Amino acid sequence: MARMNAVVHFELPYDDRSRMAAFYTKAFGWQTTMLGEEMGNYVLAATAPSGEMGPIDPGAINGGFHPKMPNADAPSVVIEVDEVEAAMEAVAAAGGIILGEPMDIPGVGRYVPFTDTEGNRLSMLQPLGGPRECGN
Description:
Blueprint: E1 7-14, H1 17-28, E2 31-34, E3 43-46, E4 50-51, E5 54-55, E6 62-67, E7 76-80, H2 84-93, E8 97-98, E9 103-105, E10 109-115, E11 121-127
Parallel strand pairs: 1-6, 7-11
Antiparallel strand pairs: 1-7, 2-3, 3-6, 4-5, 8-10, 9-10, 10-11
């Protein structure tokens, strides 16, 4: 049986990143790291005890927040893939739509968003160093 591609990260949009970070820290104890303009004002969210390769507990995932923008104004999940270009071909062959070209995220891997056949926006990530046991 082929390896299943796991959900390894979630993404949520925000209007006000300081307000959003304060909410998730206060409500759930998450730790947030605000990145700069060079990373699209992305905010990383640690939701579980983590090491260099992501959460320590099997099945736990971390996430992030991005500014609301057209075609990215709803929650999304990130699916880990072995090879992003091959996964893009598989998504397109199954009826999905790739949204742009893969981008390299320093220290993380290659990333590309897509929509499924129902119009849901998701993303794929080919992590540096190959598949992980736990998601980030």
